[in-house]
């Protein structure tokens, strides 16, 4: 995905959290196999958090209350 993290943030807020009003949350990239838990910066692309040559390692995106 070459969208910006900020675009994903907006989609999550508008489609899932709209009923809560001004909900505050962060997005984190979680790589379970490497035990990495990284804040996803709004100005970066979602693809920046994924391996260009995946070998079965997956990254999950966590929505975390701020």
The strand count comes to 3
**What string gives the helices and strands in order?**
HEEE
Number of domains: 1
Largest sheet entry: 3 strands, antiparallel
Principal-axis shape equals globular
Helix content percent band: 10-25%
- N-to-C CA distance: 24 Å
* Backbone structural class: alpha+beta
Look at the structure and give the mean pLDDT. 87
> What would you report as the Rg, rounded to the nearest angstrom?
13 Å
- Residue windows where pLDDT falls under 50 for at least 5 positions: none
The helix count comes to 1
Strand content: 25-35%
Placed side by side, the strands forming the largest sheet appear as 2-1-3
Can you describe this structure?
The protein is an alpha+beta fold and about 70 residues long. The chain has one domain (about 5-65). The chain is built from 1 helix and 3 strands; from the N terminus they run αβββ. The protein has one helix spanning about 5-15; strands spanning about 25-30, 35-40, 60-65. Strands 2-1-3 form a 3-stranded antiparallel β-sheet, with no helix packed on it. The chain starts with a helix and ends with a strand. The model has no long low-confidence stretch (mean pLDDT about 85).
